[in-house]
């Protein structure tokens, strides 16, 4: 190659001059800032166009300061007099978006493992490192933020070298903020990361690792080419659905989309077919030629399993078709989202949605409201339970309303997670106390260094998704980091708590909780609803019940008109008669009256304080 900078109009870049890599790290360790410096140093973004967190495109990402979507960009770089093409994928750092990270790793041969030189290795760092090692990626260990006064690069370089199995001198040191060491890092990416392998003459095979919906152009599909080449105006076939399309445009991201004359082996780019049907571009599918195409598909991705379920309902029932269309389009951009229609007596028509975690739920709801102009109610989140009856039948419960009522329950199985907590050793007692209060079992404990310890627990997933992370942060003054993964299921003593308004169960308020926590939940909901539901003309009892047994009760007093206002003096029997008449009227009204729960009360009762607090940048579960 003789050109000084690879352009969008040249022939295919030979694979030996391509490097595909991603940046993985714990949240807030500087991934997006490092990507900014790389964009500046390679010259793909002009100084006047530059802004912080350039690759975080969504408003919600910029507001919260967290990366939600993995973004890819093509960078030119010259080393030892030779031009190279670098494909960088900036990945999220939060546990709920680990699926985005795993997809990015499939498109890469190398990974920059970024660690904060002032904080050291966190739980998410280890989780992402193991993901990268499973894919046989070449790891480049890097310490960031060496310009901070609190930085201890020597100490954490030794810690990092101990885990990866390299020499502390191999750990690169950079400051993404000032740009120090970033040039050397890019040089090392070229020298250390292996070039992509593939057969340029074989039938085309390209892996879809992401896709987005564009209102004007339809589905935009992001691919990594493994074999052959993809050219504009060719007819292609999606191997899982056998759908065929004509390619209207093929291009690269640098960092804005630029049309090109095609993509060769090892290159990352995008395809536009003009298709509006979002189901025809499945993440993990293999793209090949329609004629003389490949016969075996690429491995693709393991389907993500939802860990938390919640119902999403439009406040205005007429928005239901719009919500369905919005979920279809969002699913294209978020393959980890799953949903199916459901109805609620209290809330009408909506969808039962599956999420990877509480932040994923919150972000999805936020995106539906912002990007599609919807007004939504989310029911209390819960996990998936397996209920075995004494007659041998089995029920899968994703919603409290699915809880079996007829027959005796033999046992209930709940999902459990393996939890890793990394924290300063002075907080061991506080962490153990918290985990035991959440029904946790200690699996093991290791000292990473003299001051830092790794605790491994098995905890019920239902105990993690609510307030566990907030409690952990408050007990460790913000120093603990948390990571969790699925670890099967266990038998648990669980019950369904119903909330009754005037003897009628309100399905939206039902919850499945551990027997020991049932009274606390029932009491909390009854007290909250007493404050939220407006007073009626008649007395309204609010009860919490397990089956037919009432465990908590609150009463909303009736609004009483002063019927004695016009009685000045006179016989007491006249006053008593008026009061008895009013009492009889209230009793009659209570038998026919229905309690109308306003939408605001549903929203307030179902929005738990714990879930709203888990969205800040420093609040990462992984």
Automatic annotation (TrEMBL):
Q: Which GO terms describe its biological process?
A: positive regulation of translation
Q: Which PANTHER family match?
A: TRANSLATION FACTOR GUF1 HOMOLOG, CHLOROPLASTIC, TRANSLATION FACTOR GUF1-RELATED
- EC number(s) from the headed UniProt entry: 3.6.5.n1
Report the main location listed first in the record: membrane
Which HAMAP family did the record assign? LepA
Query: Care to name a GO molecular-function term for this sequence?
Result: GTPase activity
Recorded hits in SUPFAM superfamilies, A to Z, give: EF-G C-terminal domain-like (SSF54980), P-loop containing nucleoside triphosphate hydrolases (SSF52540), Translation proteins (SSF50447)
Q: State the UniProt keywords alphabetically.
A: Cell membrane, Elongation factor, GTP-binding, Hydrolase, Membrane, Nucleotide-binding, Protein biosynthesis
Q: What does this protein do?
A: Required for accurate and efficient protein synthesis under certain stress conditions. May act as a fidelity factor of the translation reaction, by catalyzing a one-codon backward translocation of tRNAs on improperly translocated ribosomes. Back-translocation proceeds from a post-translocation (POST) complex to a pre-translocation (PRE) complex, thus giving elongation factor G a second chance to translocate the tRNAs correctly. Binds to ribosomes in a GTP-dependent manner.
Chain positions recorded as GTP binding sites: 28-33, 144-147
**Family statement:** Belongs to the GTP-binding elongation factor family. LepA subfamily. Belongs to the TRAFAC class translation factor GTPase superfamily. Classic translation factor GTPase family. LepA subfamily.
Spell out the protein name for this chain.
Elongation factor 4
State the reactions this protein catalyses: GTP + H2O = GDP + phosphate + H(+)
User: Which SMART domains does the entry mention?
Assistant: EFG_C (SM00838)
InterPro entries, from UniProt?
Answer: EF-4, EFG_III/V, EFG_V-like, EFTu-like_2, G_TR_CS, LepA_C_sf, LepA_CTD, LepA_IV
């Amino acid at each position: 190659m003789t050109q000084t900078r690879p352009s969008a109009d040249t022939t295919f870049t030979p694979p030996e001059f391509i490097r595909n890599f991603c940046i993985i790290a714990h949240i807030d360790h500087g991934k997006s800032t490092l990507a900014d410096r790389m964009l500046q140093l390679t010259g793909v973004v002009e100084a006047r166009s530059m802004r912080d967190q350039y690759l975080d495109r969504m408003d919600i990402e910029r507001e919260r300061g967290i990366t939600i979507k993995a973004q890819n960009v093509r960078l030119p770089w010259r080393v030892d007099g030779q031009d190279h093409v670098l494909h960088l994928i900036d990945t999220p750092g939060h546990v709920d978006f680990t699926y985005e990270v795993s997809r990015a790793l499939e498109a890469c041969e190398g990974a920059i493992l970024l660690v904060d030189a002032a904080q050291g290795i966190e739980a998410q760092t280890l989780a992402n490192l193991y993901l990268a090692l499973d894919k046989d990626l070449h790891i480049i260990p890097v310490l960031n933020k060496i310009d901070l006064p609190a930085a201890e690069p020597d100490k954490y370089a030794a810690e990092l070298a101990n885990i990866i199995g390299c020499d502390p001198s191999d750990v690169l040191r950079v400051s993404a903020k000032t740009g120090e060491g970033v040039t050397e890092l890019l040089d090392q990416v070229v020298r250390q990361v292996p070039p992509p392998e593939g057969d340029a003459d074989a039938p085309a095979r390209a892996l879809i690792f992401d896709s987005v919906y564009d209102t004007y152009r339809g589905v935009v599909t992001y691919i990594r080419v493994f074999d052959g080449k993809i050219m504009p105006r060719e007819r292609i076939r999606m191997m899982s659905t056998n759908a065929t399309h004509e390619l209207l445009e093929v291009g690269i991201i640098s960092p804005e989309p630029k049309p090109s004359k095609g993509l060769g082996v090892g290159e990352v780019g995008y395809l536009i077919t003009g298709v509006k049907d979002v189901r025809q571009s499945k993440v993990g599918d293999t793209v090949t030629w329609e004629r003389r195409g490949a016969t075996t598909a690429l491995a693709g991705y393991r389907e993500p399993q939802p860990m938390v379920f919640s119902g999403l309902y439009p406040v205005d029932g007429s928005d239901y078709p719009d919500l369905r269309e919005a979920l279809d389009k969002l699913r294209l951009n978020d393959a980890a989202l799953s949903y199916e229609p459901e109805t609620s007596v209290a809330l009408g028509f909506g969808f039962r949605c599956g999420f990877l975690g509480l932040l994923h739920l919150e972000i999805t709801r936020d995106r539906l409201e912002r990007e599609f102009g919807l007004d939504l109610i989310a029911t209390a989140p819960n996990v998936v339970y397996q209920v075995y009856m004494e007659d041998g039948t089995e029920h899968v419960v994703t919603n409290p309303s699915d809880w079996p009522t007829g027959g005796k329950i033999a046992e209930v199985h709940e999902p459990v997670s393996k939890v890793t907590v990394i924290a300063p050793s002075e907080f061991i007692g506080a962490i153990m106390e918290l985990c035991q209060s959440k029904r946790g079992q200690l699996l093991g404990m290791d000292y990473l260094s003299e001051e830092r310890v790794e605790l491994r627990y098995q905890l019920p997933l239902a105990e993690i998704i609510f307030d566990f992370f907030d409690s952990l942060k408050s007990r460790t003054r913000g120093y603990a980091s948390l990571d969790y993964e699925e670890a099967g299921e266990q038998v648990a003593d669980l019950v369904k708590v119903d909330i009754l308004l005037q003897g009628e169960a309100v399905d939206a308020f039902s919850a499945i909780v551990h027997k020991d926590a049932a009274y606390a939940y029932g009491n909390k909901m009854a007290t909250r609803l007493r404050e939220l539901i407006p007073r009626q003309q008649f007395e309204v009892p609010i009860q919490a019940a397990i089956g037919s047994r009432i465990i908590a009760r609150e009463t909303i007093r009736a609004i009483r008109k002063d019927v004695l206002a016009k009685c000045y003096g006179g016989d007491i029997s006249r006053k008593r008669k008026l009061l008895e008449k009013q009492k009889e009227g209230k009793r009659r009204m209570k038998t026919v009256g229905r309690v109308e729960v306003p939408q605001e009360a549903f929203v307030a009762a179902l929005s738990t304080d714990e879930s709203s607090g888990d969205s800040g940048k420093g609040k990462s579960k992984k």
